[in-house]
Amino acid sequence: MIGSVRDSVLHDCQVIAENIREDDRREILAMSGGEPLEAMVSGFIYSDNPRTVLVGETPVAMFGSGEVEPGVGMVWLLGTEGIEDISIQFLRESKHWLEQLHDNYEMLFNYVDERNTVHIKWLKWLGFKFINRHEQFGVENRPFFEFVRIN
Questions:
Q1: Which of 10, 20, 48, 87 could form a disulfide with 36, with the two C-beta atoms 3.0–4.6 Å apart?
Q2: 79 with 36: CB under 8 angstroms?
Q3: What is the pLDDT of residues 82-141, one digit of tens each?
Q4: Residue 20 carries which DSSP code?
Q5: pLDDT for the residue 57
Q6: Spatial distance between the Cα atoms of 122 and 61, rounded to a whole number of angstroms
Q7: Contacts of the segment 58-63: beta carbons below 8 A, 24+ positions apart
């Protein structure tokens, strides 16, 4: 399988939300109590230039970043199990796309559910530093890690 990345369109939010990874669904619920579609649309609207990862023509993940304050962006990615079909390519190209996100921001950050071990490994591999463990975070008061990357 060969994957590609393109600018996101609103319909991608629905496709990904309907097939979202269980760990991503749990993280959304723990943080906001919302549904995957709400989180996808919020990310789409909030981001400077949201991107969609495709396997063939099928959206399997969406990512982006948006300004929190000058020079600081909140980075995010939500996806489906379909990303596994292109896992090696995805890993290889992740660093390139992360650098693109850093074009607008010297610092990128966010929070990740402690249970989302796949994302935690990936974030460490990308060079993010985990700077804080919040014992009670989000609407479910679950442990979350705060992570940051400075370019």
A1: 20
A2: no
A3: 998 898 898 889 999 999 999 999 999 999 999 999 999 999 999 999 999 999 999 999
A4: B
A5: 94
A6: 14
A7: 58/15, 58/82, 59/12, 59/15, 59/16, 60/3, 60/16, 60/85, 60/86, 61/16, 61/90, 62/8, 62/12, 62/13, 62/16, 63/97, 63/101
Question: What is the mean pLDDT of the segment spanning 15-22?
Answer: 97
- Residue 1, pLDDT above cutoff 70: no
For the sheet with 72-79, list strands across it.
Answer: 3-7, 51-55, 58-69, 72-79, 107-113, 142-150, 129-137
Domain boundaries, the chain: 3-150
Token pair in block for residue 9: 């369109």
Helical H segments across 3-116, by residue range: 10-18, 22-32, 36-46, 87-102
pTM over 0.90: yes
Question: Per the structure block, which two tokens stand in for 17?
Answer: 């939300």
Task: For residue range 2-12, list pLDDT tens digits in order.
Answer: 789 999 999 99
SS3 79: strand
